[in-house]
Amino acid sequence: MTLDIMMPFYGRFDHLREAVESVLAQTDPDWRLVVVDDVYPDPAPGEWVAAIDDPRVHYRRNAVNLGVGGNFRECVRLIEAERAVLMGCDDRMHPGYVERVGELVRRHPDVSIVQPGVDVIDADGARHRPLADRVKDVLRFGGTGARVFAGERLATSLLRGNWAYFPSVVWRADELRRFGFREGFEVVQDLALMLDIIEAGGSMVLDDTVCFSYRRHATSVSAVTGPDGAKFAEERALFDEADARMRALGWSRAARAARHHLTSRLNALSELPAALRAHDPEGRRALLRHALGP
């Protein structure tokens, strides 16, 4: 199985170098890497990628800055293989990532989404487990090994708290093209896409074998948009939509999880100290509205 590794880029050069080098170190050589530069002001990172002497590595620079969602959509447009991952330009693949996800796809050829095992690193690359990831551990389905989930059970679990790690997920390319990343969602686009796929009958294989490192740091999109409440406005819009759609399907548990969105409310409360320190009254009001509102 050839895996398309699409890497939207706008960020630190050192993180990009680590991410690309982790792809080059894969034990399974059957991959194609496409770095899509969203007009990062410093040309040096792009020049470094373009100079890599490997026919599997491709570099493209957008004509204009497309933003987070727009660059994801551009990455989808450029996919050629049947399976693809939209890897963060600050994350790391372990050497056996391509090999492991390829094995999972061969064992479960009909699944739409492959979620491999993930660990978390900080800005400096050290392993750590902040509160958000400890909560993910609690919310994620139990069990061991590779197991498949679908339907209302999967939708309910993800709506209670999105425990998936988007940059590590392998998708079916045809479903990425069919559903895509919707306008208006910059932070929760992964959950929106997964719900679209699950509603259409798609399934997920969840694995425990850790083969990917997700980098959590203070300059990520979700971290930056937390204290000002922006990401929670997106979440509220998605939850309201999901509540109606799940009820239309007769998925009462999933609708209830969307309506209550308890972990999202608690997350908003956890951002309050940062909003207070920033002397941001609008952010404070937005967070309280999300946490305590209907």
Automatic annotation (TrEMBL):
This protein's record includes keyword Amino-acid biosynthesis: no
EC annotation from Swiss-Prot or TrEMBL: 2.4.-.-
Keywords: Glycosyltransferase, Transferase
GO molecular function: glycosyltransferase activity
Annotated SUPFAM superfamilies: Nucleotide-diphospho-sugar transferases
Domain Glycosyltransferase 2-like: 5-130
InterPro entries in the record: Glyco_trans_2-like, Glycosyltransf_2, Nucleotide-diphossugar_trans
PANTHER family, alphabetized: GLYCOSYLTRANSFERASE, GLYCOSYLTRANSFERASE 2-LIKE DOMAIN-CONTAINING PROTEIN
Protein name: Glycosyltransferase
Organism: Herbiconiux daphne
